[in-house]
Structure formats: structure tokens, C-alpha cells
Amino acid sequence: MNTPADTFLQEAVELLQSLEEVLLELEQAPQDAERIDAAFRALHTLKGSGDMFGFGALAAFIHHFEDAFDQIREGHAQVTPDLIAVSLDSRDHLGALLALGPNAELTASMAQTDEQLLARLALLKGASPQTAAPDQPAAATTEPTDQTSHLRQWHIRFSPEPGALKNGFRADLLLAEVAQLGALEVSCVTDHVPAIEDLDPAECYLAWDMTLTSEAERSRIDDIFIFQMDAELTITDVTPAPDQAPPQTGAPATTGDKPVQAEQGAAKSDSVRVQAHRLDDLMDQLGELVIAQARLKSIAESLDDTRLETTVEEIDALVTGLRDTTLSIRMLPLSIVFGKFRRVVRDLSAELGKPATLITEGGDTEVDKNIIDSLTEPLVHMIRNAVDHGVENTETRTASGKPEAATIRLGARQSGGEVLVTVADDGAGLDTNAIRRRATERGLITEDQDLSDDALHQLIFEPGFSTADSLTSVSGRGVGMDAVRRVVDDLRGTIDVKSHPGAGTEVTLRLPLTLAIIDGLLVTVDGDPFVLPLSSVEECVDLPESENGREEGRSILRIRDQLVPYLSLDTLFGYDASAKPGRRVAIVNAEGQRIGLVIDDVLGQLQTVIKPLSAYHRMVEELAGATILGDGAVALILDVNALVRRTGTNSLIAA
Amino acid sequence: MSLQTELTPGADIHHIHNTAPQAETVLTFKLADETFGISVGMVAEIIDPQKTTRVPNANALAPTLINVRGSIVPVIDLRFRLGMRPAEQIHTTRMLVLETKMKGETAKLAVMVDEVEDVIDTTTAELDTVPELGIRWPADCFRGVAKRDDTLVILIDADNAFALPVQ
Fold it and tell me: Out of A100, A445, A459, B68, which residue is the most buried by the measure of CB atoms under 10 Å away?
């Protein structure tokens, strides 16, 4: 599957994606020279490699497209809203050309689009000399200027002296200063960090390797480090000779774009493209390794051989490290998905005539790749709903004193073992009356049924609830929301809806960080082992004897002046109620509140490879999966959120 | 507790002869002193009874699960499905690990039986319909009865007998 042509296609799609982002950013900051360069570079690379792989039409079109950006680079033209609009349409056209495949004939409609776009581009080009620099010739030069030629690349190795921290040394400030000079890549050298028992927290054991691509003179770099007299510092010029620039895969080596390629080569050299299924294989094998390790550990414990135990401990540490590394490889920042939505909002707001801006927060939050892959679709639905139904029309907004342009917030943050992804709008909020009316019409609820607002909000996730008709502009939010819930359910996540009448709606997806391995707390209930996800456990306390065996009345514990409701897992599971002495309570954080879970005993902490349950047991919501313990026994993993939801703790607290 | 299955109960056992006779190899086992048979092609392995893990709040059809070399396999309570009384394990008790197709996926499940007996050859032509009066169990669980010497082997219809409970 990894033929050069496939690689080209993959890269082309990514280039178009980054082009779109750059264009949208340019719309906000039209003067940004770096972005203009980036757009040109993307197009130029695409043109070159497209030509090579038989995408002649694509290359021919880009030739004119990139002219526009070249002129801007040269200062003959400026970024205008028109240009962005044409460019975005052209970008989409490029996507269509790519999808057509190599050496394909253009369809009639595509040829037409091609012509129209070229005409629009030509128009912009024609208009440009007046807007910008009339004394310059308007002729387009395809040769990019040699403005990158005096870029130099420096390799800097910096190890502060061990006592630097005591003198107020701040590595972050220093690195930031270096970064101001140009494009900087930093890696931290941790080779000299000692074992934890030998570590003096006041000493600096770290060193940094930097690769700086900058126009700056050597002396400017030296200046930054001038106060680090005792540090070890080596600065070497590693600027690649022009002729040795590493060629980009598939890109033709035309003389014009060499510096550009050199820069890209440097930026990409530290990442490797790996097929996703290899990561899955790695993950599977790691899972088996973790289980085998648990078995080894339990055997070692029974043999009581010190040498064996030491080795097992070492392997244990290695496996943990390997697990963390493997998991981190699979973690990708959510910004990958977030980037796509700026276009969605831009186009939707133009289409519906509702000015709206998208603000993204926490795009650097990292989530397992499998989760990211499934997230795009639900988020599109949620954002569409926010703009389409959540946001009022301009008149209503002005009348209620809101700014004309709506704000859609797309945010992500990590909270314990979960990632929260929120789509919020500043629209009218959900109209609970309309939802109630609609649900009654559809027979989902009866007319006199007493439902809380929360329960009503959940109704928008019913399949087919609120199709295009009556509800839309009032409260809407049904289009595809059942699809959202299905995906989130599959990911073992949950959805919260918060509506503030007149002020907006906030939909939050709570998703697990990873689907494969978690840290767990092994506990027993009526003799059976169970695993609580460690991320949701806050503390463990003893169950006061006075509460033990209590069957009626309030189940509330007082922990450091805080009242915490608790549930007894054995009764919840339908097991014989145990009243044996010395039971424990695991305080977990579920559904945003502290809840105690009464268990018989805590056995310890362990790494848990989550194995899916069979179809017969998947419907038991409070179980997240199963795991195999060192002795071969199976322990069930509890989903504390579902557990608490099922028992309805609200009533518990009210009681 | 009533048990519904996804497939229509009372599957049509009276029309089993309408296809050409096919040879079939069947594994026979005992459950509550009756001899049952299941198509050998479904049987992945026969293992000694494992320590089962209770699944809280699970359907009574599959109240426990076991670890079969790293995979989590549900244990189907066939006695419950057939309306038999629960019984203690005895020294001949074995577990059959079966492979079934469920919604297009191959799924493993385990069934505890009192004794594994034999592997016999039979043909679909030899199958008799289940004598309705003589059987106390839900008819949709069976495909028919084969005669073996002087005992009756009741063939299990795995698709129906092990069908997922509807909620």
C-alpha cells in the first residue's frame, strides 16, 4: 500500500489541509509574510510532485494559483477577502482534481470550474498592480525570490552548570529567547538525570539540543547565552550546502525551490510515518506482555527468590516505560480535528447569513488516535447544530443586545482519565418547552410526565428527534445528534448538555483518554476481584463500623467535613450483603461528584489491559471491560460513571 | 424469569428434510442424564472446568465468564436455557468452547456439560423431528433428534439456543 504514488496522495491531502488552515489564518492576518510563504510553499510542492505522478491538470491549475501568491510575496499584490475566497474554492477544486486520480480526464463540470476559477484568479492578478505597487511590473514571475538563501542552520548543545537553578536560571526564558531568532527545534537531553534516590531537586541535570534555522549571525546566539559562563555550550553551523539539500519525496528538483525544500527537510527529519495498523499490532503485543508480566510477578512472589524478584521488578519498570511510550505514540493532539472546523464554521456562517467565529481552546490536548478518528463526525454535527439551531439570527441577536457575530467555542481539556470536548455557542439556549412538545408529539414522553430539564435535554439525542421542521430555529439540535450519541457510546464516553436560556448551549463529550490500557485499583467485592480505573479514584477510607451492615437510612459519610454519599457494591451487584469487619470505601469522582463505593478490601494497584466483553455482557453498562490477572483469573473493570448514573445518585444526595 | 431470544421462538423444526441429506459429525454430551449433540464444526476445544467469574447484573443466560488463553469468553448456562435445575460440578464435568457467528462476527462462548461422550457421524436424513410430547424443553433450541443405538441424541440448534437475550 505504500507505493510512492500513495505517499504522494497522502501528502497531498495533508498539504491541502494545511493550505486551508493557512488561508483561514491569512484571512485574519493578511499581512503575515510567514503564512503567505507557507501557502506558496504548499502549492509549489504540490505542483511539482503532482506533475510527477500524472496529475497534469492539477499541476497546470496550481501554476496559475501559485502565481497569485508569488505576487503577494513579491509585494505586487495584497491578501484581500476576494483572494481568500477564490483560494479556498481553488483549494477545494484541487481536492476534486486529486480525487479524480492520476492521468484522468476532467469531467465537463470540473473543466468549467477550472476555467471559472482561473478567470477569477486572472481578474485578481489584473487588479493587483493598482492596489499595491504601481511602479512594479505586473508580470508574474514563477521563480521564487531567493529570500531564504541567507538562512543558516545552527546546532546548539547547551548544558547549564549543575548549580544554575540556584542562581535563578530559567531554561524556558532562555529557550524562548533563542526561538525568537527563527525556527527552533528543541530536544531535552535527560541522560544525566540520576536515579530518584540520588536526585537533588535543586540541581540541574538537563541539557538541551537545539536546531535553529535563522538569519541571525552567530554573535546574536552567543549574546543569549552570555550569562551562562559556566555552562557547556557548543554552537555549530550545520547549514546544508545548497546542493545537498535532502530532496522531498517525489518533488522535482527545480533550482528555484531548493532553499524551501531544505527548510522542510529539516522540519520533518525527526518524525517517521508509520502505518496505523502497525501501532495496533504493537499495542496488542504490549497488552500480552503486560499480562505475561503480571503472571511472572505472581510466580516470582510465590518462589521467594531475591534474584528473581529483582529481575522481575526491573522488567516491571521496563514494561511500564514501554507502555507509556507506546501509548504516547498513539496520542495525537486534538488540534488535528479542530483545524477542520474553522472552514465548517466559515462556510456555514456564509451560507446561513449568520456571522460566527470559531474559537478553539486546548487543541494540544492529546487523545488516543482511535478516538480522534471517530471524533470528527460527531463534532461536525455538534458545530453545525450550534450555528444552525443554537445561534439566533442577526436581528434577534441585536435585539437582545448580543454582538452580531456569534461565538462558537470548541474546547478540550483533560480531567483525570477523561478528555472533555466542549462545543458551546452564545445563542438562545435550548427551548425546553419546544422539546417537551415535540417529545410528546412523538410519544417519547407523556404529556403530564414530570421531567427535569436535564432529562429533557437528553431527549435531543433520540433518533430522528427534531428533523428539519417545526423545531429548527427555535431549539433544533436533533439533526444527527443520535449519531453523536452512538459514536460517543461506542467510545465509552458520555454527553452532558447544559443550556442557559438566552445565553447559549454547551454540549460536552466526556471521553476516555485511551481504549487499551489503564492504571487500575484492584479491589474485592464478596470475594470477587474488580478493577476501578485509578484515574477516577480519589482516596480510600475505612468504612466506620457504625455504618457497616446498615441497610436503611442515609448512606452518607462525613470525610473531613464533607458529606459524601456512598453505595455498597455488593448490594448493587445483587450479592449477599457482607457485614464483615474492616471494609473500605473507595471515594471516586463520577459524573462530577464524589461518591463512595463500599468494597471489602483493596488489593493494590495494577496495569490493566482492557479486554472487551462479549456481546452477552456488553449490555451491562456499569462494566467497562475485563482484565486478566497474574493468576489467570478474570477481574471486571467497573465504569464508575455508568455505575453512578445507573443508581441515580441525585436521589441519593437528596435523601 | 422469562427469556426471550432475538430469533422467533418455535423455529420450524418440522421442515428439516427439505434439503438434500448431508453428512454431519456431531459431538455428544450429557446434561441432566439426557444425551445432546452439537455440530463438531462449532466446537473449538474441550477444556476442564475453569474458575468462572461472576458478572454482576448479567442476563441469567450468561451469568459468568472465563479466561480461555487470554480471551474473555462468556459461559452460557445451558441448563438455565433449557429450564433445567442448576447442578453441582462432578468429576466428569467439562467445558465446551464453541465458536458461533453473531451478527457477522465470530464469537466464542463456553458451555458447561456433565460429560463429553463421543463423536458420531449422522446425516440430516437420519434426523427425526423432535417428538413434541416427549420433550420438556423449549423446542426452538433443537434441530431434531438422531437415533444412536438405543439412545436419542437431541441436536442443539446453536443459533437459537445461544441467541443474545433481548433487553
Answer: A459
Candidate ranges A236-245, A442-451, B60-69; pick with highest mean pLDDT = B60-69
Supply the pLDDT for residue B2: 43
A interface test, pick of B55, B80, B159, B164 with most A CB neighbours within 10 Å: B55
The architecture in CATH of the region A152-238 reads 2-Layer Sandwich (3.30)
Average pLDDT over residues A28-33: 82
The class level of CATH for A517-654 reads mainly beta
Write down how long chain B is.
167
Q: In whole angstroms, what is the distance from residue A41 CA to residue A261 CA?
A: 9
Closest chain A CA to residue B165 = A616
| CB contact set of A493 (below 8 Å; sequence gap of 6+) | A418, A509, A510, A511, A512
Look up the ipTM and state it. 0.82
pLDDT band at A586 (very low <50, low <70, confident <90, very high): very high
**Taking CB atoms and an 8 Å cutoff, what residues of chain A touch B71?**
611
Taking alpha carbons only, the member of A7, A18, A15 closest to residue A340 is A18
Cβ of B57 within 8 Å of Cβ of A574? The answer is: yes
Break chain A into its structural domains and give their ranges.
4-131, 152-238, 278-332, 334-512, 517-654
- Chain B residue numbers with beta carbons less than 8 Å from the beta carbon of A573 are 56-57
Domains and CATH numbers, chain B: 13-161 (2.40.50.180)
- Distance of alpha carbon B74 from alpha carbon A634, whole angstroms: 11
**Nearest 5°: phi and psi at A3?**
-75, 160
Say if CB B26 and CB B39 are below 8 A apart.
yes
| DSSP states of chain B | ----BSSPSS--GGGGGGS---EEEEEEEEETTEEEEEEGGGEEEEEPPPPPEE-TT--TTS-EEEEETTEEEEEE-HHHHTTPPP----TT-EEEEEEEEETTEEEEEEEEESEEEEEEEEEGGGPBPP-GGG--S-GGGEEEEEEETTEEEEEE-HHHHTPPBP-
Kindly indicate whether the domain formed by A334-512 is annotated with CATH number 3.30.565.10.
yes
pTM (predicted TM-score): 0.53
Q: Which CATH superfamily is domain A4-131 in?
A: HPT domain (1.20.120.160)
